[in-house]
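Dear U.,

Please find below the material for section 3 of the report. The protein was modelled together with zinc ion; I have listed the sequence and SMILES used, followed by the predicted complex structure.
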Amino acid sequence: MSLQPAKTCASETHGSIPIADYKALFPASEPIRDFSPPFEGNIREKWSEAANDNGFTITARVKDRLHVLLKCHTCGSEHRKRISVVLGHTPECPHCISIQRISDARAVGARLLGRDLRNRHYGHYRLECGHQARRQFHRVNKAAHGGHDLGCEACREQRYTAQARKWGWELIGPANNMKAGYRLYRHACGQLQDIAVVNAMWGDCACKQCSHGRTAKPSWIYIFRIDLPEETVLKLGYSVRPEKRLKHQLGLSKATTAEVIRVVKMPTGFDARLEEERAHRTIAEHHPDLIVPKAEFGEAINTQGEIYRKRAEPLIHSLLDAIEHRFPPKTP
Ligand SMILES: [Zn+2]
Ligand SMILES: [Zn+2]
Ligand SMILES: [Zn+2]
């Protein structure tokens, strides 16, 4: 890889200068020397004046009758330039430009890896997070001076992926509808559909497949109280028929007393599942001590989890209050 040469002499610089040289040089102490072959001839007064006006000294004629060597007054480095550029344009020092770009990158925690070979306005960077990205030089310069970071698409996509996963959606790639802000996701059931990123992040989306099947019917989020011989526990879950679930599906022994202590009606099983999962997650994140491990209740209740201590009751009620608030019961 090489650095982007000065704008006015894209075809004039001494080819690629390895980034490593610049890194060694920055902060600059050793000026870079140019080793173009000398060319016999006088340096005209007019050329020297023009060079001087732009911050350079012509130190030699090199390569052929068309070129001179310029020494930059700012960084002290040399580079070869066409005489016509010295006379007719505003020559720029490629080394100063490179130093500027490297320092801009550093200011935002990135590393300039080299220039983009297809577009001279772009460079390749290693960002602070470790990802590699292509960025416009002037944008990096703006970021460096504005004090903000460069942002990273790869990290952003990872965030989107992790968030959507919480709601049972896998981020697959660009959206089929090509709409901005949308991506293609796959639901846990296998359904593929375009969803707005912001909705997938908050679980604010219904799976077209799931919401047309059984889960499209109204459902209930429930709290059961189950009096096990050692301890009274609670079960939080959802079901189309909570009573039936409690009496026939939990495998409770005849001696065990249990009752439904609260139900919240949900418009669909899909919503019920999302809300129920959210509630479990809240408890697991903030009150893991309220969870009764499977090892404790064992075969007494035919479920893998979702069993809580009796003292979790006020918390679970408040979670259900919040759900009820989001899905207010429809008045007939
Ligand atoms: Zn310079
Ligand atoms: Zn990143
Ligand atoms: Zn689905």
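For the text of the report, you could mention the following: Residues 155-208 form one domain.

Regards,
Y.
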